[in-house]
């Protein structure tokens, strides 16, 4: 349940994440009446600015294309409940000052209860001092709850992640911590639980007996553009596969949880992830984009080190060693600077028993996460007419058509609301992070030259479908293109 008397503190309020995601999401919740009554939002960052400048920055990303007066009025109300404090991330005195501001807001409450939610929209270099300073200067020990929301990167491999977790745990308990993987807030990812477990028809075909291979694909049509400094240190595997795509995979493949309770769900996710051995080099295809069509290559980005071999594209095949999934390849692939923006799950079923049919397409269930959420099943039906011939067609649940009047919430809105309610289901638990890193750490160390010379990625042109080697890579795992009808 939502707690009244809550202050939300956004640390890193002048940064990119806060401007583009956190504030628009907070506004979306406010506008639709989802924030607790009497809520206050306090922005905190190093930049010195007055409230006016702060309001300009934090509302700059809120969309109101047609100057809708209702939205304009709500923005004014939203400004009135939000204020700014500037201060260092390292200095305890600055946090003592923040605490005084929070106390003065809370002194206006009618009851004694007070709750504080700290959203760390910050670079990892300051996670630890901020967590410590918040605990020592801004924590409520009696008469309310404290919550801390944090976001990736959670370390760079198993060892550094453990180190970070250990340091943070000195100040904040697991129960108080909400680790965001924003893919868990996406509508279609949340739908997976329902699709799988509320449908006998789906559940019955959900294993190695029916499924040949699965692909989870992330495509973005732009490169690192100015973000090359960050990206080169992390690479596409840490940016997308190890977190977002692996999260999707775990929900797609876990056993049915006993209930919707957070720990029941997360227990099942951890269990299936533990059945996945580390990714093998042979099961990996790495790529880097080069200039094409007037667009710069990765190495042309000034913020990228010369001759970098950092992959901007990766396809890796994972195997799950349990009775449900033994032998089924799960291909996770992600790339920057491709031909389109798309994130989807493609489940390819096995061939129908030969005999009466030959050259017939396999069934495929596609769950499109974005853009344009959809679930569609490719199946074979009789071509209408006076003879019997099978043709491939689709059963199509495109949300835009079926649920035209329903606005799909932003991932960050869903997640912030969950954190305000104290629901951990869609946040990443510590042991989940640990198993996720174990799957990718050896391949990352290999890519980064910790076990011999660094592998050189193959190249692909900016704006293409990916490396030309991809077709044979997925073919190796049994993916068959549909027969054209
Ligand atoms: C972030 C990555 O986690 O996810 C970005 O750091 C990427 O590189 C982004 O662009 C993609 O998120 P979405 O919601 O646009 O698919």
Structure commentary:
- This protein is of the alpha/beta class.
- Helices cover 35% and strands 21% of the residues.
- The chain contains 14 helices and 15 strands.
- The strands form 2 sheets. Strands 14-13-12-11-7-10-9-8-15 form a 9-stranded mixed beta sheet, sandwiched between helices. The protein has a 6-stranded parallel beta sheet with strand order 3-2-1-4-5-6, sandwiched between helices.
- Strand 5, helix 6 and strand 6 (177-180) form a beta-alpha-beta unit.
- Helix 1 packs across helix 12.
- The model has no long low-confidence stretch (mean pLDDT 95).
- 6-O-phosphono-beta-D-glucopyranose is lined by residues 182, 220, 239, 343.
- Residues 182, 220, 239, 343 line the site of 6-O-phosphono-beta-D-glucopyranose.
- Residues 9-191 form the Glucose-6-phosphate dehydrogenase NAD-binding domain.
- Residues 193-479 form the Glucose-6-phosphate dehydrogenase C-terminal domain.
- Belongs to the glucose-6-phosphate dehydrogenase family.
């Amino acid at each position: 349940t939502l707690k009244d008397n809550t202050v939300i503190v956004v640390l890193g309020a002048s940064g990119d994440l806060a401007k583009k995601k956190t504030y628009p999401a907070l506004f979306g919740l406010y506008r639709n009446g989802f924030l607790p009554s009497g809520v206050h939002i306090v922005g905190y960052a190093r930049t010195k600015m007055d409230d006016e400048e702060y309001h300009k920055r934090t509302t700059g990303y809120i969309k109101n294309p047609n100057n809708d007066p209702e939205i304009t009025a709500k923005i004014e109300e939203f400004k009135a409940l939000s204020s700014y404090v500037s201060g260092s991330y390292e200095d305890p005195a600055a946090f003592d000052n923040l605490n005084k501001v929070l106390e003065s807001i809370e002194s206006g409450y009618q009851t004694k209860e007070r709750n504080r939610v700290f959203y760390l929209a910050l670079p990892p270099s300051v996670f630890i001092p901020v967590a410590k300073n918040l605990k020592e200067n801004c924590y409520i020990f009696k008469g309310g709850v404290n919550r801390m929301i944090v976001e990736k990167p959670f370390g760079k491999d198993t060892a550094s992640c453990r180190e970070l977790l250990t340091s943070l745990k000195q100040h904040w308990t697991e129960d108080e911590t909400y680790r965001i993987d924003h893919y868990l807030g996406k509508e279609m990812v949340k739908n997976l639980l329902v699709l799988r477990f509320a449908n006998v028809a789906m559940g019955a075909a959900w294993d190695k007996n029916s499924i040949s291979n699965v692909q989870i694909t992330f495509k973005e049509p732009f490169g690192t553009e100015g973000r090359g400094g960050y990206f080169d240190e992390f690479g596409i595997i840490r940016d997308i596969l190890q977190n977002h795509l692996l999260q999707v995979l775990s929900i797609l493949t876990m056993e049915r949880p006993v209930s919707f309770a957070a720990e029941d769900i997360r227990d099942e996710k951890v269990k299936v992830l533990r059945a996945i051995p580390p990714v093998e080099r042979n099961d990996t295809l790495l790529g880097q984009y080069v200039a094409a069509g007037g667009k710069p290559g990765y190495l042309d980005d000034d913020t990228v080190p010369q001759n970098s071999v950092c992959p901007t594209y990766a396809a890796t095949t994972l195997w799950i060693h349990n009775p449900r999934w033994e032998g089924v390849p799960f291909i996770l692939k992600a790339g920057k600077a491709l031909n389109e923006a798309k994130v989807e799950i493609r489940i390819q079923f096995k061939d129908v028993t030969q005999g009466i049919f030959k050259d017939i397409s396999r069934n495929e269930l596609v769950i499109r996460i974005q853009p344009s959420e959809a679930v569609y099943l490719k199946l074979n039906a009789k071509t209408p007419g006076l003879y019997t011939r099978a043709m491939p067609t689709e059963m199509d649940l495109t949300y835009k058509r079926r649920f035209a009047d329903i606005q799909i919430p932003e991932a960050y809105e869903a997640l912030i609301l969950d954190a305000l309610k104290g629901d951990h289901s869609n946040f990443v638990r510590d042991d989940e992070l640990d198993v996720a890193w174990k799957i990718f750490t050896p391949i990352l160390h290999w890519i980064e030259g910790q076990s011999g010379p660094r592998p050189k990625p193959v190249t692909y042109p900016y704006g293409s479908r990916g490396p030309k080697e991809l077709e044979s890579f997925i073919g190796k795992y049994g993916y068959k293109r549909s027969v054209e009808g």
